[in-house]
Design goal:
Blueprint lengths: L2 H9 L11 H28 L8 H7 L4 H12 L3 H19 L4 H7 L5 H12 L3 H9 L11 H6 L1 H9 L2 H11 L9 H7 L4 H12 L3 H19 L4 H7 L5 H12 L3 H7 L5 H9 L1
Helix pairs in contact: 1-2, 3-4, 10-18, 11-18
Length: 290
């Protein structure tokens, strides 16, 4: 069975695992299915990118190109990509528009039309929803080199480049949701990678790959550091002992907590408390989400 036949069958809900299939054949079929799914997404993305300037191109037209019903396409695409095909089409159009705003001096209305939007108003609303700033402001920020493709995560980035970093987070809905998820759980049980990936509608490997590209850090390391920032605030503003704060921040071994804290802040928790700090990290973190 060729990869195209496999993916068409999967999208239509056809079972591909015959009973009593030998394990070696089963393994080969699984490999073919994984290859077919990659080809399926590649084909869809190629079609969308070729039609981004068409204002009438939508899910119905995409389904026709893929020789599937609308429901079959949507079901399989959401399963593989985590979002609906309609949303992905809009995102790719907006990404194309953001690139054109960055490199051309064309009026915003002309960019909107060339990227498949029927009216300036609908383009403006969609662009603002995606990037949290107007097309005009986005172009101005881009010219000032303030719209970046990535950061190296650190306390300095959070504090010194706060506005720029906040804009960076808001421009990426998945990253904003990730920070909200982790920040709201700094004093609760640690969130497993599998739970994070489900909340973001991604696979665990996708989450790791995207976060490394954006902030050069893994999800688990980011979660630990956000908990350490919470612990730093607790050291300065709460009556709890270091051992109690360690537990509240999700560290059940005080030695591990002290080692991780010193790696991040350059001081042990007790020295940090003695020196004092005027920074309220939780306020800064919550400010990212506003």
């Amino acid at each position: 069975m060729c990869t195209e036949s496999i993916i068409r069958a999967l999208a239509k809900g056809v079972a591909l695992y015959p009973e009593h299939m030998p394990s070696n054949q089963n393994y080969e079929l699984v490999s073919l299915i994984e290859e077919a799914e990659v080809c399926f997404l590649d084909e869809i993305y190629a079609i969308i990118k070729d039609r981004t300037s068409d204002p009438y191109f939508g899910v119905e037209q995409l389904a026709e190109c893929m020789k599937l019903s609308r429901s079959q396409l949507s079901r399989k695409f959401i399963e593989l990509d985590g979002v609906s095909p309609g949303k992905r089409i809009r995102q790719l159009k907006l990404h194309n528009a953001s690139q054109r705003l960055s490199v051309s001096s064309d009026p915003v209305k002309k960019v909107a039309i060339s990227c498949g939007f029927l009216s300036y108003n609908s383009f403006w609303r969609a662009f603002y929803q995606e990037f949290h700033c107007s097309p005009t402001n986005y172009r101005a920020l881009r010219l000032q080199n303030k719209v970046r493709s990535g950061f190296i995560w650190s306390i300095e980035v959070l504090v010194d480049d706060n506005e720029e970093f906040r804009l960076f987070v808001h421009q990426r809905a998945w990253l904003h949701k990730l920070f909200a998820l982790l920040i709201n759980a700094v004093d609760k049980e640690a969130i497993a990678l599998e739970v994070i990936s489900k909340e973001l509608y991604m696979s665990p490997s996708q989450v790791i790959r995207k976060l490394k590209a954006a902030l050069a850090i893994t999800p688990m390391k980011l979660q630990q550091q956000l908990r350490l920032l919470y612990a730093a605030d607790q050291l300065m503003h709460s009556p709890y002992s270091i051992a109690q704060i360690a537990i509240r921040a999700g560290f059940f071994d005080q030695a591990h907590f002290c080692h991780a804290f010193k790696q991040l802040f350059g001081n042990s928790p007790s020295d940090y408390k003695k020196k004092g700090s005027k920074l309220d990290y939780l306020s800064v973190l919550h400010g990212l989400l506003i």
